[in-house]
Amino acid sequence: MSDYSCYNFQTKLLHHKHKTDPVTGAVSVPMHLSSTFHQEDLDQFGKYDYSRSANPTREALEEQIAQLEGGCRGFAFSSGMAAISTAFLLLSQGDHVVISEDVYGGTYRMVTEVLTRLGITHTFVDMTDLKEVEQAVQPNTKAFYIETPSNPLLKVTDIQAVSELARQQGALTFVDNTFLTPALQQPLSLGADIVLHSATKFLAGHSDVVAGLAVVKDEELAERLYFLQNSFGAVLGVQDAWLLMRGLKTLYVRLRHSSEAAGKLAEYLNHHPLVKKVHYPGLKEHSGYPLQRRQAEGPGAVFSFELESEQLVRPFTSHLQIPVLAVSLGAVESILSYPAKMSHAAMPEQERKKRGITNTLFRFSAGLEDPEDLIADFEFALAQSTIQVLAK
Protein backbone atom coordinates (compact mmCIF):
# COMPACT_ATOMS: atom_id res chain seq x y z
CA MET A 1 0.00 0.00 0.00
CA SER A 2 1.41 3.39 -1.00
CA ASP A 3 1.99 6.02 1.67
CA TYR A 4 -0.18 8.78 0.23
CA SER A 5 0.39 10.96 3.29
CA CYS A 6 3.79 12.02 1.98
CA TYR A 7 2.25 13.78 -1.03
CA ASN A 8 1.53 17.47 -1.20
CA PHE A 9 -2.12 18.56 -1.04
CA GLN A 10 -2.52 19.01 -4.79
CA THR A 11 -1.36 15.43 -5.40
CA LYS A 12 -3.51 14.01 -2.58
CA LEU A 13 -6.62 15.19 -4.40
CA LEU A 14 -5.89 12.63 -7.12
CA HIS A 15 -3.78 9.97 -5.46
CA HIS A 16 -5.29 8.27 -2.45
CA LYS A 17 -6.51 4.87 -1.28
CA HIS A 18 -9.45 4.95 -3.68
CA LYS A 19 -7.65 6.21 -6.81
CA THR A 20 -8.40 2.90 -8.56
CA ASP A 21 -10.94 0.15 -7.97
CA PRO A 22 -9.10 -2.95 -6.65
CA VAL A 23 -11.43 -5.32 -8.50
CA THR A 24 -11.61 -3.76 -11.97
CA GLY A 25 -8.82 -1.20 -12.03
CA ALA A 26 -11.34 1.56 -12.81
CA VAL A 27 -9.94 5.04 -12.17
CA SER A 28 -13.28 6.24 -10.81
CA VAL A 29 -14.82 5.05 -7.55
CA PRO A 30 -17.76 2.72 -8.35
CA MET A 31 -21.27 3.86 -7.40
CA HIS A 32 -22.71 1.27 -5.06
CA LEU A 33 -26.39 2.11 -5.42
CA SER A 34 -27.57 -0.77 -3.27
CA SER A 35 -29.59 0.18 -0.20
CA THR A 36 -28.94 -3.16 1.52
CA PHE A 37 -26.30 -5.91 1.48
CA HIS A 38 -26.53 -9.70 1.62
CA GLN A 39 -25.21 -11.26 4.84
CA GLU A 40 -23.64 -14.72 4.80
CA ASP A 41 -24.51 -15.53 8.40
CA LEU A 42 -27.30 -14.70 10.84
CA ASP A 43 -24.94 -14.09 13.73
CA GLN A 44 -22.06 -12.29 12.02
CA PHE A 45 -22.71 -9.40 9.65
CA GLY A 46 -20.23 -8.04 7.13
CA LYS A 47 -18.86 -4.51 7.08
CA TYR A 48 -21.90 -3.23 5.17
CA ASP A 49 -25.49 -4.08 5.98
CA TYR A 50 -27.63 -1.01 5.21
CA SER A 51 -26.53 2.11 3.35
CA ARG A 52 -27.63 4.55 6.03
CA SER A 53 -25.06 2.95 8.34
CA ALA A 54 -22.30 2.55 5.74
CA ASN A 55 -21.93 2.54 1.98
CA PRO A 56 -18.68 1.83 0.08
CA THR A 57 -19.02 4.89 -2.18
CA ARG A 58 -19.82 7.27 0.66
CA GLU A 59 -17.05 5.69 2.71
CA ALA A 60 -14.51 6.47 -0.02
CA LEU A 61 -15.49 10.14 0.15
CA GLU A 62 -15.40 10.14 3.95
CA GLU A 63 -11.92 8.63 4.00
CA GLN A 64 -10.68 11.12 1.43
CA ILE A 65 -11.93 14.22 3.26
CA ALA A 66 -10.48 12.87 6.52
CA GLN A 67 -7.08 12.57 4.86
CA LEU A 68 -7.30 16.03 3.30
CA GLU A 69 -8.25 17.67 6.61
CA GLY A 70 -5.70 15.67 8.61
CA GLY A 71 -8.36 13.95 10.73
CA CYS A 72 -8.97 10.39 11.81
CA ARG A 73 -12.46 10.04 10.35
CA GLY A 74 -14.84 11.84 8.02
CA PHE A 75 -18.62 11.88 7.69
CA ALA A 76 -20.77 12.77 4.69
CA PHE A 77 -24.21 14.32 5.14
CA SER A 78 -27.10 15.32 2.91
CA SER A 79 -26.33 19.04 3.30
CA GLY A 80 -24.04 21.43 5.13
CA MET A 81 -26.80 22.13 7.64
CA ALA A 82 -27.27 18.38 8.19
CA ALA A 83 -23.57 18.16 9.10
CA ILE A 84 -23.77 21.20 11.39
CA SER A 85 -27.01 20.06 13.04
CA THR A 86 -25.68 16.56 13.67
CA ALA A 87 -22.52 18.00 15.23
CA PHE A 88 -24.67 20.14 17.52
CA LEU A 89 -26.42 16.95 18.65
CA LEU A 90 -23.21 16.14 20.52
CA LEU A 91 -24.49 18.68 23.05
CA SER A 92 -27.08 18.03 25.73
CA GLN A 93 -29.80 19.92 27.54
CA GLY A 94 -28.25 22.53 29.82
CA ASP A 95 -25.13 23.03 27.68
CA HIS A 96 -23.99 26.42 26.39
CA VAL A 97 -22.38 27.42 23.07
CA VAL A 98 -20.17 30.42 22.28
CA ILE A 99 -20.60 31.25 18.59
CA SER A 100 -19.36 33.72 15.96
CA GLU A 101 -21.80 36.64 15.77
CA ASP A 102 -21.96 36.99 11.97
CA VAL A 103 -22.52 33.30 11.40
CA TYR A 104 -24.32 31.85 8.36
CA GLY A 105 -28.07 32.45 8.55
CA GLY A 106 -28.95 28.76 8.56
CA THR A 107 -26.64 28.15 11.51
CA TYR A 108 -28.15 31.17 13.29
CA ARG A 109 -31.62 29.70 12.77
CA MET A 110 -30.52 26.28 14.08
CA VAL A 111 -28.96 27.78 17.20
CA THR A 112 -31.68 30.30 18.04
CA GLU A 113 -34.81 28.34 17.11
CA VAL A 114 -33.91 24.66 17.50
CA LEU A 115 -31.15 24.34 20.10
CA THR A 116 -32.92 26.73 22.45
CA ARG A 117 -36.01 24.52 22.27
CA LEU A 118 -33.80 21.62 23.36
CA GLY A 119 -32.51 23.56 26.37
CA ILE A 120 -29.12 24.45 24.84
CA THR A 121 -28.22 28.12 25.32
CA HIS A 122 -25.84 30.30 23.32
CA THR A 123 -23.91 33.56 23.30
CA PHE A 124 -22.99 35.33 20.06
CA VAL A 125 -19.66 37.14 20.22
CA ASP A 126 -17.18 38.91 17.98
CA MET A 127 -14.73 36.01 17.75
CA THR A 128 -11.95 38.35 16.63
CA ASP A 129 -11.91 39.74 20.18
CA LEU A 130 -10.48 37.06 22.47
CA LYS A 131 -11.40 39.03 25.58
CA GLU A 132 -15.02 39.06 24.48
CA VAL A 133 -14.82 35.32 23.84
CA GLU A 134 -13.39 34.73 27.33
CA GLN A 135 -16.10 36.87 28.93
CA ALA A 136 -18.79 34.83 27.18
CA VAL A 137 -17.62 31.55 28.74
CA GLN A 138 -19.98 30.05 31.30
CA PRO A 139 -19.51 27.04 33.61
CA ASN A 140 -21.71 25.00 31.25
CA THR A 141 -19.99 26.08 28.01
CA LYS A 142 -19.42 22.88 26.02
CA ALA A 143 -18.68 24.16 22.53
CA PHE A 144 -17.12 27.08 20.67
CA TYR A 145 -18.43 27.49 17.12
CA ILE A 146 -16.19 29.39 14.70
CA GLU A 147 -16.62 30.57 11.13
CA THR A 148 -13.35 31.95 9.79
CA PRO A 149 -13.42 33.87 7.58
CA SER A 150 -16.94 34.57 8.76
CA ASN A 151 -20.03 34.77 6.58
CA PRO A 152 -20.63 37.40 5.28
CA LEU A 153 -18.21 39.95 6.81
CA LEU A 154 -15.05 37.86 6.39
CA LYS A 155 -13.85 38.37 9.96
CA VAL A 156 -10.83 36.25 10.88
CA THR A 157 -10.78 34.28 14.14
CA ASP A 158 -7.64 32.90 15.77
CA ILE A 159 -8.45 29.18 15.64
CA GLN A 160 -5.50 28.17 17.80
CA ALA A 161 -6.28 30.68 20.55
CA VAL A 162 -9.99 29.81 20.73
CA SER A 163 -9.22 26.08 20.63
CA GLU A 164 -6.84 26.49 23.57
CA LEU A 165 -9.51 28.36 25.50
CA ALA A 166 -11.95 25.55 24.71
CA ARG A 167 -9.49 22.93 25.97
CA GLN A 168 -9.10 24.80 29.25
CA GLN A 169 -12.89 24.80 29.56
CA GLY A 170 -13.19 21.12 28.62
CA ALA A 171 -15.26 22.15 25.59
CA LEU A 172 -15.19 21.27 21.90
CA THR A 173 -14.18 23.60 19.07
CA PHE A 174 -16.21 23.44 15.85
CA VAL A 175 -14.87 25.25 12.77
CA ASP A 176 -16.87 25.86 9.61
CA ASN A 177 -14.18 25.64 6.91
CA THR A 178 -16.48 26.09 3.91
CA PHE A 179 -14.91 29.31 2.59
CA LEU A 180 -11.30 28.09 2.53
CA THR A 181 -11.47 24.26 2.35
CA PRO A 182 -8.48 22.15 3.46
CA ALA A 183 -6.63 23.47 0.40
CA LEU A 184 -6.11 26.76 2.24
CA GLN A 185 -6.85 26.08 5.93
CA GLN A 186 -6.70 22.99 8.13
CA PRO A 187 -8.31 23.79 11.49
CA LEU A 188 -7.59 20.39 13.09
CA SER A 189 -3.87 21.14 12.92
CA LEU A 190 -4.58 24.38 14.83
CA GLY A 191 -6.38 22.62 17.67
CA ALA A 192 -10.00 22.37 16.51
CA ASP A 193 -11.96 19.19 17.27
CA ILE A 194 -14.45 19.14 14.40
CA VAL A 195 -14.24 20.68 10.94
CA LEU A 196 -17.51 21.27 9.09
CA HIS A 197 -18.20 21.98 5.42
CA SER A 198 -21.03 22.88 3.18
CA ALA A 199 -19.48 20.67 0.50
CA THR A 200 -22.08 22.11 -1.87
CA LYS A 201 -19.65 24.99 -2.28
CA PHE A 202 -15.95 24.85 -3.26
CA LEU A 203 -15.42 21.15 -2.56
CA ALA A 204 -18.01 20.06 -5.14
CA GLY A 205 -17.66 23.29 -7.05
CA HIS A 206 -20.17 22.94 -9.89
CA SER A 207 -23.56 23.98 -8.43
CA ASP A 208 -24.91 20.47 -8.96
CA VAL A 209 -24.56 18.86 -5.51
CA VAL A 210 -25.98 19.62 -2.07
CA ALA A 211 -23.76 17.98 0.56
CA GLY A 212 -22.17 18.40 3.97
CA LEU A 213 -18.99 16.99 5.49
CA ALA A 214 -17.53 16.72 8.97
CA VAL A 215 -14.06 15.59 10.03
CA VAL A 216 -12.81 14.85 13.54
CA LYS A 217 -9.34 14.16 14.87
CA ASP A 218 -10.19 12.01 17.91
CA GLU A 219 -11.37 8.39 17.70
CA GLU A 220 -13.67 8.62 20.70
CA LEU A 221 -15.33 11.73 19.28
CA ALA A 222 -15.56 9.99 15.89
CA GLU A 223 -17.54 7.14 17.44
CA ARG A 224 -19.94 9.60 19.06
CA LEU A 225 -20.47 11.46 15.80
CA TYR A 226 -20.92 8.23 13.86
CA PHE A 227 -23.61 7.14 16.32
CA LEU A 228 -25.44 10.41 15.66
CA GLN A 229 -24.97 10.19 11.89
CA ASN A 230 -26.43 6.69 11.88
CA SER A 231 -29.21 7.59 14.32
CA PHE A 232 -30.22 10.89 12.73
CA GLY A 233 -29.81 9.42 9.25
CA ALA A 234 -29.18 12.54 7.16
CA VAL A 235 -26.50 10.79 5.09
CA LEU A 236 -25.28 11.77 1.64
CA GLY A 237 -26.67 9.81 -1.30
CA VAL A 238 -24.34 7.68 -3.39
CA GLN A 239 -24.64 9.65 -6.62
CA ASP A 240 -23.97 12.93 -4.82
CA ALA A 241 -20.98 11.36 -3.06
CA TRP A 242 -19.59 10.34 -6.46
CA LEU A 243 -20.13 13.83 -7.92
CA LEU A 244 -18.45 15.37 -4.90
CA MET A 245 -15.40 13.14 -5.32
CA ARG A 246 -15.23 14.17 -8.97
CA GLY A 247 -15.36 17.83 -7.96
CA LEU A 248 -12.56 17.35 -5.44
CA LYS A 249 -10.15 16.35 -8.20
CA THR A 250 -10.06 19.93 -9.51
CA LEU A 251 -10.36 21.75 -6.17
CA TYR A 252 -6.78 23.02 -6.09
CA VAL A 253 -6.74 24.55 -9.58
CA ARG A 254 -10.26 25.97 -9.23
CA LEU A 255 -9.57 27.60 -5.88
CA ARG A 256 -6.22 28.98 -6.99
CA HIS A 257 -7.75 30.71 -10.02
CA SER A 258 -10.84 31.90 -8.14
CA SER A 259 -8.76 33.31 -5.27
CA GLU A 260 -6.59 35.24 -7.70
CA ALA A 261 -9.67 36.61 -9.44
CA ALA A 262 -11.28 37.56 -6.12
CA GLY A 263 -8.13 39.42 -5.09
CA LYS A 264 -8.04 41.47 -8.28
CA LEU A 265 -11.72 42.38 -8.14
CA ALA A 266 -11.53 43.20 -4.42
CA GLU A 267 -8.60 45.55 -5.08
CA TYR A 268 -10.54 47.25 -7.87
CA LEU A 269 -13.68 47.72 -5.76
CA ASN A 270 -11.63 48.88 -2.78
CA HIS A 271 -10.76 52.05 -4.72
CA HIS A 272 -14.12 52.62 -6.40
CA PRO A 273 -15.98 55.77 -5.29
CA LEU A 274 -19.36 53.98 -5.18
CA VAL A 275 -18.08 51.27 -2.85
CA LYS A 276 -18.08 52.17 0.84
CA LYS A 277 -16.07 49.18 2.07
CA VAL A 278 -14.65 45.85 0.94
CA HIS A 279 -14.40 42.98 3.42
CA TYR A 280 -11.61 40.66 2.26
CA PRO A 281 -8.72 39.28 4.34
CA GLY A 282 -6.49 39.48 1.27
CA LEU A 283 -6.47 43.28 1.52
CA LYS A 284 -3.64 44.62 3.69
CA GLU A 285 -5.94 47.08 5.46
CA HIS A 286 -8.22 44.25 6.61
CA SER A 287 -7.84 43.85 10.38
CA GLY A 288 -7.47 40.08 10.01
CA TYR A 289 -4.82 40.22 7.27
CA PRO A 290 -1.80 39.24 9.43
CA LEU A 291 -3.67 36.42 11.20
CA GLN A 292 -5.06 35.10 7.93
CA ARG A 293 -1.52 34.86 6.55
CA ARG A 294 -0.38 32.96 9.65
CA GLN A 295 -3.13 30.36 9.88
CA ALA A 296 -4.12 29.88 6.23
CA GLU A 297 -2.48 29.48 2.83
CA GLY A 298 -4.50 32.28 1.30
CA PRO A 299 -7.48 34.63 1.70
CA GLY A 300 -9.85 32.56 -0.43
CA ALA A 301 -12.21 33.40 -3.27
CA VAL A 302 -15.04 35.09 -1.36
CA PHE A 303 -15.38 38.72 -0.27
CA SER A 304 -18.18 41.10 0.56
CA PHE A 305 -18.60 44.79 -0.19
CA GLU A 306 -20.95 47.63 0.68
CA LEU A 307 -22.28 50.12 -1.83
CA GLU A 308 -22.43 53.80 -0.88
CA SER A 309 -26.20 54.01 -1.18
CA GLU A 310 -29.16 51.66 -0.99
CA GLN A 311 -30.48 53.40 -4.11
CA LEU A 312 -27.67 51.76 -6.08
CA VAL A 313 -28.57 48.20 -5.10
CA ARG A 314 -31.24 47.33 -7.66
CA PRO A 315 -29.70 49.21 -10.62
CA PHE A 316 -26.33 47.60 -9.89
CA THR A 317 -27.66 44.04 -9.93
CA SER A 318 -29.82 44.67 -13.01
CA HIS A 319 -26.80 45.75 -15.08
CA LEU A 320 -24.37 43.00 -14.09
CA GLN A 321 -24.03 40.38 -16.81
CA ILE A 322 -21.49 37.77 -15.66
CA PRO A 323 -22.21 36.76 -12.04
CA VAL A 324 -25.21 34.64 -11.23
CA LEU A 325 -27.42 36.43 -8.68
CA ALA A 326 -28.12 33.51 -6.39
CA VAL A 327 -27.88 31.83 -3.03
CA SER A 328 -24.65 29.82 -2.57
CA LEU A 329 -20.98 30.30 -3.46
CA GLY A 330 -17.88 28.38 -4.43
CA ALA A 331 -18.85 27.35 -7.96
CA VAL A 332 -17.19 27.46 -11.38
CA GLU A 333 -19.43 30.42 -12.20
CA SER A 334 -19.14 33.63 -10.18
CA ILE A 335 -22.03 34.12 -7.78
CA LEU A 336 -23.27 37.40 -6.35
CA SER A 337 -25.42 37.08 -3.24
CA TYR A 338 -27.47 39.61 -1.31
CA PRO A 339 -27.18 38.44 2.34
CA ALA A 340 -30.09 40.52 3.67
CA LYS A 341 -32.53 38.53 1.54
CA MET A 342 -30.56 35.36 0.83
CA SER A 343 -27.97 33.74 3.11
CA HIS A 344 -29.07 35.74 6.19
CA ALA A 345 -32.78 36.11 5.55
CA ALA A 346 -33.37 33.85 8.57
CA MET A 347 -31.76 36.51 10.78
CA PRO A 348 -34.11 39.29 11.94
CA GLU A 349 -33.32 42.69 10.43
CA GLN A 350 -32.42 44.17 13.81
CA GLU A 351 -29.90 41.36 14.41
CA ARG A 352 -28.47 41.74 10.90
CA LYS A 353 -27.92 45.46 11.31
CA LYS A 354 -26.37 44.95 14.75
CA ARG A 355 -23.77 42.73 13.07
CA GLY A 356 -23.14 45.13 10.19
CA ILE A 357 -25.07 43.09 7.61
CA THR A 358 -26.66 46.10 5.95
CA ASN A 359 -29.04 46.44 3.02
CA THR A 360 -26.14 47.66 0.88
CA LEU A 361 -23.98 44.59 1.50
CA PHE A 362 -23.21 42.05 -1.22
CA ARG A 363 -21.21 38.84 -1.02
CA PHE A 364 -19.23 37.78 -4.08
CA SER A 365 -17.75 34.38 -4.86
CA ALA A 366 -15.31 34.40 -7.77
CA GLY A 367 -15.61 31.65 -10.34
CA LEU A 368 -13.40 30.66 -13.25
CA GLU A 369 -14.07 33.61 -15.54
CA ASP A 370 -11.27 35.93 -16.66
CA PRO A 371 -10.85 38.49 -13.83
CA GLU A 372 -10.50 41.33 -16.35
CA ASP A 373 -13.95 40.49 -17.71
CA LEU A 374 -15.34 40.54 -14.18
CA ILE A 375 -13.79 43.94 -13.47
CA ALA A 376 -15.17 45.35 -16.72
CA ASP A 377 -18.62 43.97 -15.91
CA PHE A 378 -18.60 45.54 -12.43
CA GLU A 379 -17.31 48.83 -13.83
CA PHE A 380 -20.15 48.96 -16.37
CA ALA A 381 -22.82 48.04 -13.81
CA LEU A 382 -21.64 50.65 -11.31
CA ALA A 383 -21.46 53.35 -13.98
CA GLN A 384 -24.95 52.54 -15.22
CA SER A 385 -26.25 52.53 -11.65
CA THR A 386 -25.02 56.06 -11.15
CA ILE A 387 -26.69 57.23 -14.36
CA GLN A 388 -29.95 55.56 -13.43
CA VAL A 389 -30.00 57.00 -9.89
CA LEU A 390 -29.17 60.53 -11.10
CA ALA A 391 -31.89 60.32 -13.72
CA LYS A 392 -34.59 59.87 -11.08
Automatic annotation (TrEMBL):
Ranges in coiled-coil conformation: none
Record carries keyword Amino-acid biosynthesis: yes
Matching PROSITE patterns: CYS_MET_METAB_PP (PS00868)
Enzyme class: lyase
Assigned protein family: Belongs to the trans-sulfuration enzymes family.
Stored PANTHER family: CYSTATHIONINE BETA-LYASE, TRANS-SULFURATION ENZYME FAMILY MEMBER
Record-given protein name: cysteine-S-conjugate beta-lyase
